[in-house]
Every structure is written in C-alpha cells, then in structure tokens.
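Supplementary notes for students who missed Thursday's class. We covered one full example, reproduced here. Read the sequence, then the structure, then the short commentary at the end.
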Amino acid sequence: MQSKNIKISQLDLAIVADNTSISATLNNSKMLAQWCEKLGYERFWMAEHHNMVNVASSATSVLLTYIASHTEKIRVGSGGVMLPNHSPLIIAEQFGTLESLFPNRIDLGLGRAPGSDSHTSIAIRSDFFAQTKRFPENIVQLQKYLSDDNQYSNVRAFPGEGTNVPLWILGSSTDSAYLAASLGLPYAFAGHFAPRLMLEAFQIYKQNYRPNDTNPRPYTMACVNVIGADSNEEAELLSCTLYANFLNIIRNTRQPMKAPSKAILESMNDMEKAQINQMLGCTFVGNKETLQNQLADFVETSGIDELMITSHIYDFEKRLHSTQLAYEAVAALNAEKSKAVV
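Structure (token representation):
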C-alpha cells in the first residue's frame, strides 16, 4: 500500500440545474468553494466549456476571480483552460493578474480540446484546428511569458511576467501523457468522463518524465466522479442525475440538470448503457465507508498523488454533504495508511 497521503481537490463545472438561474448557479459554485476550503480541500478548479445550456463556466478566468475573492487559502485554478481557444499572451496576462491578486493560490491547467463542438470552436477562433497542432509550442511560449526570462523579449506579459504561475497538463489520452512528461509538468487525467486509458497514461508519464528544478518528480492527479450519501441506496438514487447528464451527451440533448429518477436508467438501450458504463468507469457511489473502500482500491491501483472529485448532484445541500463525505473518506484512507506505516 502507498504510504503517502493523498490530497483531495474539487472540480466544478458550474452545472445549471433545472429551474435554477445562472446567477444562482454561480453563487452555488462560490459556496461550494468556501465549503471545500473549510473542509480542507487542496484546490478548487473550474473548466472551460462553450455553447452548453447546462454549463456556466465559459468565462473561466472571470469566474476564478469571483471564486478566489470569496475564499482565503484554497488554491483556485482552471481544469482547464483550452489553450487552442486563446492567445498564450492573453492567458499569461489573465492568470498573471489572478496570481497578482491572489499570490501563491493560482493554478493554470491546460487542455487541447475545444471544450465544445466544432462549429463553436471555429466561432471562438477561426484557426482553432491549426492551433491544436501548436499546443506544445504554445505551452512553452506561455511558460516563457510567465517567467523572468522573458524580460528581454519584444512581447511581454504585464501582469504575468515573473509570476511563474504553476502549469498543469490536462488530458484524456496517452498523447497528453507524453507531452506532460517531456515538459516536466504535473499531469491531471480526465477520468470523470474518459477513464479507459488513464492507467496506461500515468505509466507512460512516469516512465518518460523529465525532472526539472520546479518539478523534480512526476505528479499525477485523477479526476473522478464521486456521489456520496448517508446510505448506499440514497447515493445510488442521487447518481441517476449523473447518468442522465451523460445520456444527454450521447443523445445530443443537452438540458439543465434534472432531479434524480430511476426512470432514466430504464430508458437506456443496451448500446447507450455500454457507452455510459465506459465513460463512467471511474465513478464512486455510496456511503462514507463504501467510498473509502472503493477509493482505497483506486488509489492503490492508480498510484496517484492527488484525487480530484466532481459530483453531478441535483440538490445543492446534498452535494455539499457528498463533498464532506468524500473528504472524510479520503481522510480515513490516509489515517489507515499512516497506521500501516507505523
């Protein structure tokens, strides 16, 4: 068993629930971040998505300012910014500003995907697909803008230069693993929707990692779905909302998050069930004891340094409770490992 303690963090997509305004949704994100900070979560990340009626995190850097200004110590960051949508200079300035406002609290997770459909990608940036091919060199350029070494360049980021905002590579394939390893950056895998290649990607990353002064050793984080409740039966019911969300993705029927109903499970055909089961292969559902046992096996198998959870739960109070149960499950897991070492 691993002896190191596992950190726990939160990914929030600002999912809009049925009969809930965007304003109320963003206020819930703020309160969730405050709750995570109170519990002892390591970081709170938000993801860039576009043209989705049920997601309110499109203006990610703006939203992170809101979250950071209403918290005090939890790390706040992007999980992630989709770099091909943006100029590296603009992202350096935005996150340099965030770091200047909230010193030593900002993370910059970077992804290659559009965070939307192809039509929207072109609407955001006409040369989006060309920029995806430039993803590795744009990361290097962004890193340079944020460093002291850029002070003699013709183009400089203000704010940004010298802030050295920590960069993360986000991925859902083995390509991202090779890239993160070659750049010597921490690596976060999207196990909450694409878990199939995760263990292979982590192995590739660790085997090919190039240490540097900033990141002398590889560092892995897995994002997974966690639905917790006081009983396994209640948690299973709450998870129906998660299944409905992914079924909407498969059917291309995006809509606000719905209250949990077992009817959604009965409406799926065999092909849809197979697709959803593959997408939700890293989903942990149950009471605190069940979560602890499930996560202990996952942590041991994956060898991760940090666990990031996301929870599609319709009732916000129940989501807060699930967030607490997840934290307590990981804390109990760490306590067990500490006893084993002694």
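Commentary. The longest strand covers residues 220-228. The mean pLDDT is 96. If anything here is unclear, bring it to office hours.
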